[in-house]
Design goal:
The complex is a heterodimer of chains A (115) and B (112).
Chain A lengths: L3 E4 L2 E4 L5 E7 L5 E8 L3 E10 L2 E4 L7 E2 L9 E3 L8 E8 L10 E2 L3 E5 L1
Chain B lengths: L2 E4 L4 E4 L4 E3 L1 E4 L5 E7 L5 E7 L5 E4 L2 E4 L9 E3 L8 E8 L7 E2 L3 E6 L1
Parallel strand pairs in B: 2-12
Antiparallel strand pairs in B: 1-4, 3-9, 5-6, 5-10, 7-8, 8-9, 10-11, 10-12
The chains are: A mainly beta (115), B mainly beta (112).
Chain lengths: 115, 112
């Protein structure tokens, strides 16, 4: 089954404790992205990657890191989480943008709470 | 810059009522436009899309027409069902650059 998977689905942590949220897709997509969803703000793009070893900042990259060492994986790293990073996070992938923007496929989301 | 503005929610309708959710955008060039739906506890799913002016996207009884003159992409459905209860997001992807931009989402509840 074609899908985007995220782990963990739920996470409660404390301020300053490094964490990683994993994202993996099995569709051989070139484009991957991370979003956070907050009430009244919709989805905001954190980082995206056009392909392996190519990553770029989205609109809200502060406090986050990403890496793209393999095509299928795109982990989101919070080196020192703070309470304002409490949010619902979505990973998404897309076949690529070379032929124009196409739909993104979303993972099920990760609910993060930072105390 | 690029941005999407959606009508405020929440929206509550009776079954079989007509639905309109307004979406307007600001973009450079000629973006592609999307409607995504998010059912409770799930990720977003593409509902429909349009890639150029005057295109009409349609799926599951929902429709939206890309209106360049009014920079709008309003979502409509003639007769909603309880199963349509969800959050709906309007989004755009500029034809230059590699980012996607989403609206704030509109929550729809359909009551029997």
């Amino acid at each position: 089954e074609a899908q985007v998977t995220q782990n963990p689905r739920y996470l409660i942590t404390v301020t300053g404790k490094k964490l990683t949220v994993t994202c993996s897709q099995n569709m051989n997509h070139e484009y991957m992205s991370w979003y956070r969803q907050d009430p009244g703000l919709g989805l905001r793009q954190i980082y995206y990657s056009m392909n392996v070893e190519v990553t770029d900042k989205g609109d809200v990259p502060e406090g986050y890191k990403v890496s793209r060492k393999e095509k299928r994986n795109f982990p989101l790293i919070l080196e020192s989480p703070s309470p304002n990073q409490t949010s619902l996070y979505f990973c998404a992938s897309s076949p690529g943008l070379a032929g124009g923007p196409v739909e993104q496929f979303f993972g099920p989301g990760t609910r993060l709470t930072v105390l | 810059g690029n941005s999407v503005t959606q009508m405020e929610g929440p929206v509550t309708l009776s079954e079989e009522a007509f639905l309109t959710i307004n979406c307007t955008y600001t973009a450079t060039g000629y973006p592609s436009l999307f409607w995504y739906v998010q059912y409770p506890g799930e990720g977003l799913q593409l509902l429909l899309k349009a890639t150029k002016a005057d295109d009409k996207g349609s799926n599951k009884g929902f429709e939206a027409t890309y209106r360049k003159e009014t920079t709008s992409f309003h979502l409509e459905k003639g007769s909603v069902q309880v199963s349509d209860s969800a959050v709906y997001f309007c989004a755009l992807a500029p034809n230059t650059g590699n980012q996607f931009y989403f609206g704030t989402g509109t929550s729809l509840t359909v009551i029997p």
